[in-house]
Amino acid sequence: MKAQRIRKAVFPVAGLGTRFLPATKASPKEMLPVVDKPLIQYAVEEAVAAGAEYLIFVTGRNKRAIEDHFDRAPELEATLEERGKTEQLKLVQDIVPPEVACIHIRQPEALGLGHAVSCAEPVIGDEPFFVILADDLIDGNGRYCLRQMVDAYEKEPGSMLAVQRVNPKRTASYGVLDADDIGGSLHRVRGMVEKPAPEQAPSNLAVVGRYILTPAVLRKLHSVGRGAGGEIQLTDAIASVIDDEPVFGYEFDGTRYDCGSKLGYLKATVAFALQHAELADSFGQWLDTGHRPPQPGNGN
Asked: Residue 54 carries which DSSP code?
């Protein structure tokens, strides 16, 4: 099977973000900033660098801020230009390259990740596509995780899932692979289990939020039915094509930060601040002093 070029990326962004309440009561969790960019922008930059030309945002209620972020802002741009703030103007204008299209689709019900992906089918059509979960912020050590996966996909066409090894005691938080190591960073998948108890997990290879998927997976979402948690699970659809076409797990080079949790989000903020051109030195020096800010009071 020859690798078909991947042009479309799906961003399921309809979740409520309840773990970050009250911050996410009226603002999408994907708009939480890590240093000076929201999580969703990091995800978009990764997709564009991997070759995506169409960005498909599957949204829900209270997600208008995501649309606005990737839209033009004529009044802001005019103000920045008038004030001679050319650097800030370029930042605002370059959020999405002009040749890349943004498409927004509403998910009518919260029926799981698989259902969210299926909502993008009218745009995806019969092409392979990316799925990117903005909650998973991945530092690829100078090379985006998705770009690494595309390089592997071009040599071994088929669906490909980003995986990392996790503590065996934590398998119940992930989709887990039953797979054969076929060399390098690749594993040929024999099966998948969604959130298995540690004693039932086939391995500690956990799927994280980067996927390259074939049209066959998209079609299977119509028939897999509801799985774990009463939701339509993407992993169930992927597992159902394993007998018909190759599915791979790819151990990426880099560090994943689970920004769906408060601790992971804070770790990501520190790590990315230490790489930031303007902040790295001064923030690093501040950390090196062992300085801790005073503990917040109760407001009285």
From this structure: E
pLDDT band at 227 (very low <50, low <70, confident <90, very high): low
Residues 240 and 220 sit within 8 Å (Cβ to Cβ): yes
Give the per-residue SS3 of 137-168: EEECCCCCHHHHHHHHHHHCCCEEEEEEECCH
Helix-strand-coil percent breakdown of the chain, rounded to 5?
Answer: 35, 25, 40
Using DSSP, state whether 104 is helix, strand or coil.
strand
Residue 189: C-alpha distances to residues 220, 238, 280, 291 (Å): 17, 10, 40, 47
Distance of CA 99 to the CA centre of its chain: 22
Identify whether the C-beta of residue 185 lies closer than 8 Å to the C-beta of residue 254: no
* pLDDT value for 210: 96
In this structure, the number of other CB atoms found within 10 A of the CB of residue 77 comes to 14
How confident is the model over 162-212, as pLDDT tens digits?
999 999 999 988 889 999 988 889 999 999 888 888 998 899 999 999 999
Residue type, 45: E
- Whole-model pTM: value is 0.91
Residue 154: how many other CB atoms lie within 10 Å: 13
| Range list of H helices, the chain | 39-49, 64-69, 74-82, 86-93, 113-118, 121-124, 145-155, 215-220, 234-239, 262-273, 280-288
- Which phi and psi (to 5°) does residue 39 adopt? -55, -40
16 residue type, one letter: L
Whether residue 101 is predicted with pLDDT greater than 60 in this model: the reply is yes
Cβ-proximal residues to 187 (8 Å cutoff; 6+ apart), any chain: 163, 177, 179, 180, 181, 205, 248, 249, 250, 251
Assigned token pair, 47: 């997709």
